[in-house]
Amino acid sequence: xxxxxxxxxxxxxxxxxxxxxxxxxxxxxxxxxxxxxxxxxxxxxxxxxxxxxxxxxxxxxxxxxxxxxxxxxxxxxxxxxxxxxxxxxxxxxxxxxxxxxxxxxxxxxxxxxxxxxxxxxxxxxxxxxxxxxxxxxxxxxxxxxxxxxxxxxxxxxxxxxxxxxxxxxxxxxxxxxxxxxxxxxxxxxxxxxxxxxxxxxxxxxxxxxxxxxxxxxxxxxxxxxxxxxxxxxxxxxxxxxxxxxxxxxxxxxxxxxxxxxxxxxxxxxxxxxxxxxxxxxxxxxxxxxxxxxxxxxxxxxxxxxxxxxxxxxxxxxxxxxxxxxxxxxxxxxxxxxxxxxxxxxxxxxxxxxxxxxxxxxxx
Length: 363
Ligand code: NAD
Prior knowledge:
This protein folds into two domains: 1-103 and 261-363, Isopropylmalate Dehydrogenase (3-Layer(aba) Sandwich); 119-255, 3-Layer(aba) Sandwich (Isopropylmalate Dehydrogenase), CATH 3.40.718.10. A ten-stranded mixed beta sheet has the order 2-1-3-12-11-4-5-10-8-9, with helices on both faces. The chain has helices at 14-32, 45-51, 57-64, 88-99, 122-125, 163-178, 194-207, 220-229, 241-250, 252-255, 292-305, 309-324, 345-361, and strands at residues 2-10, 35-37, 68-73, 103-109, 129-135, 147-149, 154-156, 183-188, 214-219, 236-239, 264-266, 271-273, 327-328, 341-342. By secondary structure, it is α/β, with parallel strands linked by helices. It is globular. It is built from 13 helices and 14 strands. The chain binds nicotinamide-adenine-dinucleotide. Nicotinamide-adenine-dinucleotide binds at residues 13, 17, 73-76, 89, 92, 258-259, 274, 277-283, 289-290, 293, 331.
């Protein structure tokens, strides 16, 4: 199969981790007889410096012409004094809006080898495997009216959804649940908010189209507690923009490091893939960045933009095998580095690549 994956590596550790993700994808392509190409374009701070804009027109055009976009991260301390609309992060927000993805997928998977890095007890998180499906284009972050009226000392935002906006993201969640453990937990605040009552009624209606999937509803306040007490109970968690932002970050503790988390935004013109972490200026250029979140993001490209599920699973299993063998980047070996082989970014990428190669050759 042919795939044009635009790489917008961005700033800080973005180029370091995307290099490793691309190298793994190249390995998968060459062994599977696939033709993947990886054109590169600038975004974020590096684009401000070279092109005078955080999202140059050429980057946007290339993104819209691609099959998938792989983003590293944007941002840097030297841009912090710029107005919000001129900062590196503005480029990413513009790109997300232009690509139009409305369903943000964030897997939170507990690698048992990393349990020691989580503040939760190993027996609580062992086996946890949650896929958050967060609505990304509606709700409180976009609803009108919104204002801070400084003269009256009032401010307001609006949590607004239409039935269609809820139904389309619910269909994504149910459809993904059919490929996993057939359970959707929809999270709202329907005991208080009318917008959540619409959310709950619509999700319940969409559930009729997916008879194999069990649907349960949870209030967001209770859910934030259940996720920490019994994360293994959840498969696909479907929720609106604000609640999803909060719950998916909370669940990052299950995985033990920010550097492990991949994400995908689907449903728009072109899917956008990015590790959850930022540009980490504190460790940029030092070979300390964990590339596993970016490499796992590559697996999501194979799953959601290429239909190569088996190959996606090979990458995910490859990452697990490398952890099982005791290889770590520094963020994964903070408490007990003496127990592991601690790798640089490129060494970790190479180890995953070799492991994936062995698995594919022997498949
Ligand atoms: P961050 O995610 O960059 O870093 C938070 C902490 O986690 C840091 O200590 C960092 O060293 C560590 N970390 C992050 N990724 C890591 C990895 N792969 N391996 C090892 N350690 C890792 O968040 P921040 O410090 O709040 O933000 C830094 C910059 O990144 C800011 O300019 C911010 O706006 C930007 N940012 C961008 C994105 C994005 O591009 N999607 C997301 C979040 C933050």
